[in-house]
Specification:
51% helix; 8 helices; PIN_dom; PIN_toxin-like; Rossmann fold; Putative toxin-antitoxin system toxin component, PIN family; alpha/beta; 16% strand
């Protein structure tokens, strides 16, 4: 199972910065099992959240810069054109639009407002653990 197109929500990137414990994702990226799908909107949200004072005490600026380098190297940047408006939390609709325009296989999140949808177009919406189980079970 190669080249699965995956969007990781901001909450997962922040968790990664705090815990540095997503070794499976690192392996999936290095092995070409997943391709990260990003947009300017997701990048902007990540940077804005990472700058919040209550989170800054958990990781260094160099950690954010290192993660941004990873995005640059391993992510495909997609320009969002779709205008889907189905999420009960309207500010999350950009992720659904990214899923459609980026032809993502998976949108990975811990956000219940997104998880309740289960699927948008051809994109399955699931948790980090579900993604790891799915990819390990099929690789």
């Amino acid at each position: 199972m190669k080249n699965k197109r995956v969007i990781l929500d901001t909450n997962l990137w922040i968790s990664y910065l705090i815990t540095n414990s997503f070794t499976e994702i690192d392996e999936f990226i290095q092995d070409g099992i997943i391709i990260l799908v990003f947009s300017e909107e997701l990048l902007d949200e990540f940077i804005e959240v990472a700058k919040r004072p209550k989170l800054r005490k958990f990781f260094a600026t160099k950690d954010v810069e290192s993660l941004l380098t990873t995005f640059n190297e391993f992510a495909e940047l997609i320009a969002i054109e779709s205008q889907i408006d189905v999420c009960r939390d309207k500010k999350d609709n950009f992720l659904l639009n990214l899923a459609i325009d980026g032809k993502a296989d998976y949108l990975v999140t811990g956000d219940k407002d997104l998880l309740v949808l289960k699927k948008i177009d051809k994109t399955h919406i699931l948790t980090y653990r579900e993604l790891v189980e799915k990819l390990k079970g099929n690789s």
